[in-house]
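Run log, item B.
One chain of 155 residues. Sequence copied directly from the ordering sheet:
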Amino acid sequence: MQTHSAQNGELQSAFIHGVYVLTQQWTVDAGVRFSKFDKDYSHQPRGWRQSNRVIPSKRNFIGKHTWEEATPTLGVSYRVDNEAMIYLRYSTGYLPGGYDENALSVDTAQPTDSQTSDSWEIGMNSEGMDDALRLNMSYFQIDHDDKIEQYPILR
């Protein structure tokens, strides 16, 4: 007796990004990505454990779902001089939802929410010694919302 599970998907995305030079030192950029993800799902669990035996499943869960998301990005940079620039950037990330390959019931075979994240980055790019040395540094932080995790089922 085997578990059969299949997920097939198609992702379509479009991205637009623009840069606006405020002054010789200050630049602002912004963009947005539009994503659409269609997924088909078919899953037939092995069965349910009852005491010391497994009762075979004749149930096949089939689903189709679409996830859509717009994820923006925004940045600002300041050119300190001809050799150094500092910047700050914010962006959002997106991972479409899915289906649980360990689902044992109609309730647990439902689509999950998408995972999103907020990302902040601050950094510096510089060149020196007649362009013989390049130094780039950055610090970033990513906060996840609705993180998707799967835990194995102990059998």
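Observations after the first pass:
- The chain has a mean pLDDT of 85.
- Residues 8-36+66-145 form one domain.
Flagged for discussion on Thursday.
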